[in-house]
Amino acid sequence: xxxxxxxxxxxxxxxxxxxxxxxxxxxxxxxxxxxxxxxxxxxxxxxxxxxxxxxxxxxxxxxxxxxxxxxxxxxxxxxxxxxxxxxxxxxxxxxxxxxxxxxxxxxxxxxxxxxxxxxxxxxxxxxxxxxxxxxxxxxxxxxxxxxxxxxxxxxxxxxxxxxxxxxxxxxxxxxxxxxxxxxxxxxxxxxxxxxxxxxxxxxxxxxxxxxxxxxxxxxxxxxxxxxxxxxxxxxxxxxxxxxxxxxxxxxxxxxxxxxxxxxxxxxxxxxxxxxxxxxxxxxxxxxxxxxxxxxxxxxxxxxxxxxxxxxxxxxxxxxxxxxxxxxxxxxxxxxxxxxxxxxxxxxxxxxxxxxxxxxxxxxxxxxxxxxxxxxxxxxxxxxxxxxxxxxxxxxxxxxxxxxxxxxxxxxxxxxxxxxxxxxxxxxxxxxxxx
Length: 434
What we know:
There is one protein chain. By secondary structure, the protein is of the alpha/beta class. It has 2 domains: 10-51 and 313-428, Alpha-Beta Complex (Aspartate Aminotransferase, domain 1), CATH 3.90.1150.10; 75-307, Type I PLP-dependent aspartate aminotransferase-like (Major domain) (Aspartate Aminotransferase, domain 2, 3-Layer(aba) Sandwich), CATH 3.40.640.10. Helix content is 40%, strand content 13%. It has 13 helices and 13 strands. The chain has helices at residues 15-35, 48-52, 82-92, 106-120, 145-153, 170-179, 202-210, 241-247, 277-287, 296-306, 309-338, 364-373, 405-428, and strands spanning 39-41, 99-101, 136-141, 157-164, 167-168, 183-188, 219-223, 254-259, 271-274, 344-346, 355-359, 376-378, 395-398. The longest helix is centred in the C-terminal third of the chain and has 30 residues, at 309-338. The chain is globular, with a radius of gyration of 23 Å.
């Protein structure tokens, strides 16, 4: 967490000093409102400059056949193009035959897997999940709102565990999974987690892979969305969860998801699924009832564009040149405006797409509302928790990737002003509005 000593903690200020601070921040807030800006830090979208990096895709592929001579414009090839799977198998540390390349959205594959488990059960399930009295998932928090929304839509209950710097609290996960047979799985973003930036350690991954569970068909939904999204030269390596589960005699425990959504074109990339060989065949058997094959033309253009795994990493270094200054600017503004004030903590991520901001308990919703008044859209407070309910009302996810640097600076100044104003109001008991 970042801190500074260039300003006094608000807890050291008298009521009169807090009210004076609140007045000053209201004036700053009014000045931001008067600008009439429309700014957005809600979702982790690539910027236009990042998307431009992949414009060569528009001139690819240069051929219509894969290396076996098969015409990629035609039906078939449910597993996806092998040339592309080989590239991402190396990056994701899985076997090519255990990796599927599909459409543009890994979230769609996650939904498919969950629905198949509910309707049919997995290869190690005694019955379809929908025939269980209830189904529960473990959700590390703060976490990814779309994971939680997907579970809620399908009627799957959620229980939370803390997300630590090394990944989810493995002992809490193990205890819950061992005690309750309705606990059928868990989510985890293992590398540069959304939104905390945490990287799951090898030790935590091994504990999750090997832990006893009351449900015989417990699943780890390993959403490796940011496996290659580094912000520095200190590039984190993802744990090899499939090898770990296999070695622990739970070969069907892990589903690994990934995509090129934040690598090439967010709306025109490729998503991937890896698991045990048996589980891949299980998935393909159900997929084949509703699909005759993915967009292999898109697969081929991506394979040509990258060339090999090193081509992906080189491409991501160009992303880093665009993104690293933005994350540095977030760090600068938060440090200068909030450091040492005792009202906020935040992470300094080394990869991924988000900054995790924790403000004074009970003020996150107020910060988001104040920001909206000043022309800045933030992710709703509580979005990083199941059902959108943060019990402490303290967490805000910041997504600094999309706006140009100049707009990002203004947005972060608004964030800092709103955090200070909300904190001064709460601590002084002065909730006067303009």
